[in-house]
Amino acid sequence: MYKFLTLITLILTPVLVFAISNVQDLLVAVLTLINLVIPVVFGLALIVFFYGVAKFVFKSREGDEDAIKEGKSLMLWGVISIFVMGSLWGVIYFIQYELGLETTPAPAVYNP
Question: Which residues make Cβ contacts (< 8 Å) with residue 99, sequence separation at least 6?
């Protein structure tokens, strides 16, 4: 019962907050919120990855095997989360494009 009420609350919150009147507006609101969260989580994944690299490099000089294992683990999870966030970003953009919803542009990439 608790899970059901939590799910209903999460579904209805955007409706109440954004005064959404139809399903398309609800989809746009949810996808916009997801698009705002993905770069933050992507940045956190990069920080975790580089923290793992630093831990691996600096602790390998000392020979601390537990810290080296933890550094490798942090690097692995950082790479996995970066991949997941990039994939999720692509899936969300694809859904927005195919359904004809408002799309937020992907980050610009400099191409010399």
Answer: 24, 27
> 82, 45 in Cβ contact below 8 A?
yes
| pTM exceeding 0.90 | no
Chain-wide mean pLDDT for the chain? 77
**DSSP track, 48-93:** HHHHHHHHHHHHHHHT-HHHHHHHHHHHHHHHHHHHHHHHHHHHHH
Mean pLDDT of 70-79: 88
Q: Please, are residues 43 and 20 in contact by the beta-carbon 8 Å criterion?
A: no
**CB-count exposure of residue 78 (10 Å: 0-12, 13-18, 19+):** buried
Q: Collapsing DSSP states into helix, strand and coil, what is residue 21?
A: coil
Q: How far is CA 104 from the centre of its chain?
A: 15
Spans of all domains in the chain? 21-99
